[in-house]
Amino acid sequence: MTFSAPPVAQVFAVVFLVAAQVAVAQPSGKICSGSCYAVSAPGATSDCENWSQGSTYQYPTDYNVLPKVAWYTCPQSGFRILLSNGIGDHEFTLNNPHTPCANLWYARLPLNATLSNTLTEPGDLGPVAFAVNGAPMYGPQDANNENAADPPASGRIQDGKYWWGHAGFDNDWHYHNPWVGNAVQPNSTQLVGYALDGFPLYGILADTSVLDACNGRMVNGQYQYHLRDKNQVNGSGPYCNGTSPAVLWNYVVGCFHGDLTKTLVTSQTDSQAQLPSDCVEDKATGLAMEALRGLFQRMH
């Protein structure tokens, strides 16, 4: 199959090529089973929000950088592809010195996700899923191996606990809180995003006893994940369940139950970040290309 350069990435590139990628040393988190499926942020550009610590900002009026996101379904290639600058689309309070900057995310996920007989531990740090608004959902650990979603009072990093997320040391906006960018708790029928193995991720169930260790269950013959609220997770307990790949701070996923061999998360500037010719924009999940062009014209 012949691949072509992604048209949305080309639009994004016009905006961001002037901003050099910043290489940041990645800290390491706790790993339970000996290995995990870990991916890193593509690196912040110099296109950043002009925000000050301690202030609250409204979307979109207070945004210097607006979100740019497009989801594609590729039926022949078998992919679901996300192109995003990683900027959220809601109110944000900056509680640390790190203002969010655009990150040129490219995520290629299986369109028809399949269960694996082997469970995979989610990444110690970095994304485990992507929200429908294009912002990444990170695992529960912070850079100090503490609980970022529900930190202890003595924890060094406190601002990951909020629903609007935060930016890390490398200015990458992301969520740890299981409300993942929603001001109210997402319900069990609300599609909130997709895990890296391609399975859909839904809101919080009242009864989590129906979920497996990965946070998944079968619904009408199809596997799907569900978020767990903070009161459904023992956040003050251990992260690891011995050497099991299913972690206990399972706010987003406890483990990956799906096949990850087709998954690729990288920068849009990577030569592997291609958009197959059969891909069609999924306007029900992402923003329309016309809206992206409109944003581009208004911002520039």
Give the topology.
Elements: E1 3-4, H1 7-16, E2 44-48, E3 56-57, E4 69-74, E5 79-84, E6 92-93, E7 101-103, E8 105-110, E9 115-120, E10 127-131, E11 136-138, E12 166-167, E13 173-174, E14 191-195, E15 200-202, E16 216-219, E17 222-226, E18 256-258, E19 264-267, E20 275-276, E21 280-281, H2 289-299
Parallel strand pairs: 15-17
Antiparallel strand pairs: 1-20, 2-7, 3-6, 4-5, 4-21, 5-8, 8-19, 9-18, 10-11, 10-14, 12-13, 14-15, 16-17
What does this structure look like?
The chain has 300 residues and is mainly β. 7% of the residues lie in helices and 26% in strands. The strands form seven sheets. Strands 11-10-14-15-17-16 form a six-stranded mixed β-sheet, with no helix packed on it. It starts with a strand and ends with a helix. Mean pLDDT is 87; it is low at 1-25 and 287-300.
List the defining traits of the structure above.
globular, 2 helices, about 300 residues, disordered N terminus, 21 strands, mainly beta
In short:
Helices cover 7% and strands 26% of the residues. It is built from two helices and 21 strands. It has a six-stranded mixed beta sheet, with no helix packed on it. Strands 19-8-5-4-21 form a five-stranded antiparallel beta sheet, with no helix packed on it.
